[in-house]
């Protein structure tokens, strides 16, 4: 089971993204603001994270001093993702929006892996990886059609 656990967590994350996108898009449409919808989304997430940390984790706040400076900006990427997907979903549809974001994620992931950036283990680009990436990009066009 431990070998399967990361795959289950990743699948759960994918399911959550698929449900989060239309939820945030509806909130943006209802309020008339992608930014306010994103704020509400992050406030709900922050509330849940604080509760989980307080109840189960309690890592000392001083532990963050050990993180490199670039590790502090992860939340900024989340803001871009949540706002962009809330904006794009009603205009492109959920499937197209998520295939475009997935293709972009995988393209960046292959580049980050190849160079071993951001603390990742270096995984060189191979023909197989490029073929897989090409299939995902082709999938964007197929889903769009």
From TrEMBL:
The keyword Ribosomal protein does not apply. This is Inner membrane protein YdcZ. Pfam families: DMT_YdcZ. InterPro entries: EmrE-like, YdcZ. It comes from the Bacteria. GO terms for cellular component: plasma membrane. Keywords: Membrane, Transmembrane, Transmembrane helix. It comes from Sphingomonas mucosissima.
């Amino acid at each position: 089971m431990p070998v399967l656990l990361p795959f289950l967590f990743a699948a759960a994350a994918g399911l959550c993204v698929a449900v989060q996108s239309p939820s945030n898009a509806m909130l943006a449409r209802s309020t008339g603001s992608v930014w306010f919808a994103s704020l509400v989304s992050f406030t709900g997430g922050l509330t849940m994270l604080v509760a989980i940390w307080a109840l189960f984790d309690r890592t000392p706040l001083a532990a963050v001093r050990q993180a490199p400076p670039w590790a502090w900006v992860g939340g900024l990427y989340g803001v871009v993702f949540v706002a962009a997907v809330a904006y794009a979903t009603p205009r492109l549809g959920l499937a197209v929006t998520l295939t475009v974001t997935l293709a972009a994620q995988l393209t960046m992931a292959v580049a980050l892996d190849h160079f071993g950036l951001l603390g990742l283990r270096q995984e060189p680009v191979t023909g197989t990886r490029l073929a897989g990436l090409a299939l995902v990009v082709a999938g964007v066009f197929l889903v769009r059609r």
